[in-house]
Amino acid sequence: MSATNTGALEQREQFLRTFDQAHQRVLKGDNVRFDTELGKALQAYKDGLPFQVTWLTPESFGQFLLLETPEQGLFNQLASETQFYNLLDQIESTCFLNPANLAIARPFIAGLYESEISTEKHFTPPANWKYLPVEEAVVAYRKIFGSSLKADAVLKLAKEAKAGQDTEGIPVWLKLSSLARMFEVKGDPLAVTDEGREAYAAIVDRFVPEVGKAYRKVFSKHGFKNWREGQLSANHVILTPAGIVTWQKLHETTDDDFCFAPAGANTGSNYSGHSVRLSRIKIVLAENKFPQDCIMTGGTIATQPERMSKFEHLGMDCPANSYSPDAGGKFGYSLDWGWNGGELRFDRYWANDADRYFGSASGRFA
After folding, report:
1. Among candidate residues 326, 253, 321, the one with its CA nearest the CA of residue 293
2. Closest CA to 42 of 14, 28, 21, 13
3. How many angstroms separate the CA atoms of 186 and 234, rounded?
4. Which letter does DSSP use for residue 270 in this model?
5. pTM for the complete prediction?
6. Residue ranges of the domains in the chain?
7. Residue 111: which of 282, 335, 311, 309 has the closest Cα?
8. CB atoms < 10 A from the CB of 189, how many?
């Protein structure tokens, strides 16, 4: 005879209390029967039969969702024993754009990190700032990355897209595959493999300086500082699980060198003053939104540098990226674009810190 308990301290204590109560009733000679799984162990004890009680703890959020009766105590224990960046990855892997899993997970994750919002007045984008019309954006990209970029599909399809009310228009971005070709990067940056991660990091390493060059052509009096220079290997920067899925879906929007956000995007004001990890949770909970990475946000700055030209302009966090400063596997940071000290800056910041100067950039699939 066996009984299984899934490991939360509260459940263990409840089991022991129940067992003790049953034990006392058995000693008194009460005629009691037990029908639950827990009760089977108690009944075996009463009948003098051998039994085993095994404490099992889910090792991941995915395993937690597979439990017949997932409970808050179990989730609290899992969250307390898992590094937050690993837990976020597990939540995104199981729930991002997955309505069935999200329905089960929502009661447990809805309150995660909810207090991580700056109470100070949040910075904002420039007044009335919007993404460039599609035709103008393509022209801007071609000036920076070459006139041979193919854009027939995006010019047709993106013009027909309708931006959601909480967006700043329909942005277009260069595909990762297009950037890989231009930068002569080997491997598929969308592949969920070591080679894919290395290809993506190589693109980031080459792309960031190009953003700086394009920015300084417009604002020659402003500087640009890449604080991550020499620290953008595959052991430093990665796409989050939601970031990978996002890029895969965006690549499907056209068959040329560009992709676009089907229902618009926002450069940070929707999540201004939020920690990146809270933004990531809210994006998952929204069901139809996606996180932007440093390629999307950087592309916006390269083609529209006025978006980030003053200190009071809201900086852009990149919630589709995780970052490890020491390349040691602890991805507790995210990447960001900000403006300070007379220069545009590309840097990293703690994913669990709420800062009024920044907001996570996002987009909408619908």
Report:
1. 321
2. 21
3. 14
4. G
5. 0.86
6. 2-109, 134-364
7. 282
8. 24
Note down pLDDT in tens along the chain; length 366 residues: 333 434 445 555 665 666 666 656 656 655 555 455 666 776 777 677 886 655 567 999 999 999 988 999 999 999 999 999 999 999 999 999 999 999 999 999 999 999 999 999 999 999 999 999 999 999 999 999 999 999 999 999 998 999 999 999 999 999 999 999 999 999 999 999 999 999 999 999 999 999 999 999 999 999 999 999 999 999 999 999 999 999 999 999 999 999 999 999 999 999 999 999 999 999 999 999 999 999 999 999 999 999 999 999 999 999 999 999 999 999 999 999 999 999 999 999 999 999 999 999 999 999
**Is 253 in contact with 260 (CB distance < 8 Å)?**
yes
318 with 336: CB under 8 angstroms?
yes
Residue type, 145: F
Pairing of strands 315-323, 237-239: antiparallel
Give the position of tokens 């089977």: 40
The one-letter code for the residue type at 183 is: F
List the structure tokens of 211: 């953003």
In the numeric block, which tokens belong to residue 364? 């909408």
Q: Which residue bears the tokens 């809805």? A: 110
